[in-house]
Every structure is written in C-alpha cells, then in structure tokens.
Design brief:
Blueprint (H helix, E strand, L loop, with lengths): L1 E5 L4 H12 L3 E6 L20 E4 L5 H7 L5 E4 L13 H22 L4 E6 L7 E4 L3 E3 L7 H5 L15 E3 L12 H20 L3 E6 L1 E3 L12 H10 L5 E2 L6 E2 L1 E3 H16 L10 E6 L5 E2 H12 L5 E2 L16 H7 L7 H10 L13
Parallel strand pairs: 1-2, 1-4, 2-3, 4-5, 5-9, 9-14, 10-13, 11-16
Antiparallel strand pairs: 6-7, 6-8, 12-15
Length: 365
C-alpha cells in the first residue's frame, strides 16, 4: 500500500512513518517543517530514509495534489498542537488545522483518494465524563471560573446539587465540548472529515489521541505537552512545576502505541472497513486504559532521572480541563488494538532520550 502521511516529520508522524515502513508499505511524507516544531528547519530523518519526503504545506492545493498521486490511503496528522501562547494564535491554528484539512479533503475528493485516518484529540470532549454522588451520571460541567481556581477550588461541581463530581472514563458517545482554540479546530477537522466521507462515499476514522509521550517529543515551546516540560525541567536539574494540585487525571499513552493504533485503523479501512460503512466517520479513543494524575507523571519522570522532586505550584491556565481519561474499549473490540507499553518502561525510556530528537536509526533505510 502507498500511504501519504501529512505531518509525517512530527512527533507522532515520524513514529507512524517508521511503523508503516517496517510493515513494508511505501510511504510519502508531506510536512511544512513549521518552526514551532522544527526550529532548525530540518526533518528528523536521515537522508537515506526509505521513504519519499515532500517538503510543503498542506494548505497549498498544488503541493497536496502532487503528494496524493498514486496514493492508496492518507493518514492526516499535519496540525498545530497545544494551547499556544494566547488567543492571538487563533488564525494560525485555524489556518493550519482547518483550512489545511479542507484543502487536503478537497484534493482527495478530486483525485478519488481514500480512505482517511484523521489524527484527532481527546480535547474535543472538553471536560471528561463525571458522576455525582447524589445524582449519578452528571452532565458535562461548565468551564471552570478564575475565581474558583484562584481560591484553589479545582474540582468541577454538579450543576444540580453543587457537590464535587468524580471523574469516570469518557466514551466516544460523549458530547463534543471544546474549551480552547486548538480543541475547536480538532472538532472542525472531524466535521470536515465526516462531510468528506458522506460526499465521496468513502470511509474515515478519527483517532482521539489522549496524552501522548515518548521519544521525539518536542522540547520547550509553547506548543509542547506537559510531559515534555517536565522532562526538560529534570534534564536541566530543575524541579518539575506542577499546576493546580497535581491531581488532574489524564491517560498517558506511549507514542509507539499511538503509531500502532493509527496503522491498525488504516489497515482496517483498507480491508473490511469499520462499523458504519462507506460514507461515515468512525471515532475511536486511543489511550493506555490506565488513568494517572499529572503529579504522578511528574514524579515518575523525576524518579527516572534521579530528581529533583516536583513542586506543586497551585498555578493554572484558563482553558485547561480538570480531568479527561479515555475508555479505549471500542477500538479494542472493533479493531483488536490495545496499548502494550508499560508506563514505567515508557517513562524510563522517555527520561533517557534527548529532547526533541528522533533516535538515530529509528527509520529503516
């Protein structure tokens, strides 16, 4: 199979390219090498890598049309990630993520190319799923207010009785409730992909990645994830600074597991398809299946690196959600996929890997 991977020089994309190449597929990478991810302007691959690299922006229709020639399927990972600096980043996020996706899908429709695997995110849910000790399953809580956060009241409360809610695993049927610009662009990407599937009679899968970590993760930029900030701190001999009280629940999943899930979804689409059939978008959570707190992540990275121990700061960022943890039951049942990297092993590897670089020799020639 010949596969186009947009954003294939990025953190998750480079691992996906490796997985597809190792499986014997022909891979073409399209990547704009954005400075926020590639400050040196260079792809993280050796010159002799065994795939085709096309430098270019997914927002450029001519570049995309050329990259799609002869392609049997597309994995769309090109996007800006993270919360960014402030709302002034909104045009760049919407341009890269939503305009770029629209340009790609329009070119795929013209070329008759499919199927599509879209890299989505758990951020589409906003706050995760909750239960109230008084009222049972709870409605999605409203965004947290600065006054509550300033007072150290971090936990969401029930809309009906005001009691503190308990987090539970979120399923794909949960309502989409984006809480920041990045999240809004990921919801829009899913809607665009669903419209493309209906218009073309093709199938698409949206993989809602949870908190991905591992080798090749970008280092200190406003767009990096919390694991990257913690790892950079301990590598520099500084204590990781944990926001709020450190009890925020997340699902930390290793990047190689995420790459494997993405390849698995592509193979399913290229074979017998997925439930829903032609003309539909099917969403899957991609997580480890084991919730952990942000404080536990910081402590594990510090321990793996030999210290220093994390510091709980009480600070916060508006737009962050309190708890979001995945139920990956659907992808396990329908695609027979599950994460296999033990958290302790993945963190030990991550702590020992230089920041922002793909280990030499990862991608076969």
């Amino acid at each position: 199979m010949r596969v186009l991977v947009t954003g294939g020089a990025g953190f998750i994309g480079s691992h996906l390219v490796e997985a597809l190449s190792r499986a014997g597929h022909e891979v073409r990478v399209l990547d704009a090498l954005l400075p926020c991810v590639h400050p040196d302007g260079l792809p993280p691959f050796p010159d002799e890598a065994g795939f085709e690299f096309v430098p270019g922006d997914v927002r450029d229709a001519d570049t995309v049309e050329s990259a799609l020639r002869g392609v049997d399927g597309v994995c769309h990972l090109a996007a800006m990630v993270g919360l960014g600096v402030d709302f002034g980043d909104a045009p760049q996020y919407a341009g890269c993520n939503d305009l770029g996706t629209a340009v790609l899908l329009a070119a795929m429709a013209r070329a008759g190319t499919g199927p599509l695997v879209l890299a989505s995110s758990m951020v589409v849910y906003g706050e995760g799923a909750y239960s109230c000790p008084e009222d049972g399953p709870a409605a999605t809580p409203p965004p947290r207010q600065a006054a509550d956060l300033d007072a150290g009241r971090f936990e969401p409360r029930c809309r009906s009785c005001g009691q503190t809610l308990s987090p539970v695993l979120v399923t794909e049927e949960a309502a989409l409730s984006p809480r920041n610009v990045y999240a809004a662009t990921k919801v829009a990407q899913e809607h665009l992909a669903g419209s493309w599937a209906r218009a073309t009679g093709n199938q698409a899968v949206a993989l809602r990645y949870h908190n991905v970590y591992g080798p090749g993760m970008p280092q200190d930029t406003p767009y990096a994830g919390v694991a990257a900030f913690f790892r950079s701190a301990v590598a520099a001999g500084r204590a990781p600074e944990v926001f709020e009280d450190g009890a925020q629940r997340r699902d930390f999943v290793h990047v190689r597991d995420v790459a494997d899930a993405t390849a698995t979804a592509l193979y399913a689409l290229a074979g017998e398809g997925v439930p829903g059939g032609p003309g539909h978008l099917r969403a899957y959570n991609v997580g480890s299946g084991t919730p952990r707190t942000v404080g536990q992540l910081a402590s594990a990275l510090a321990a793996a690196h030999g210290g220093p121990v994390p510091v709980i700061t009480g600070r916060y960022r508006l737009g962050d959600v309190r708890h979001i943890t995945a139920s990956s039951e659907r992808i396990g049942q329908e695609l027979s996929w599950r994460a296999t990297t033990p958290f302790e092993d993945g963190i030990a590897e991550f702590a020992a890997t230089p920041a922002g670089r793909v280990p030499a020799g990862r991608v076969p020639a």
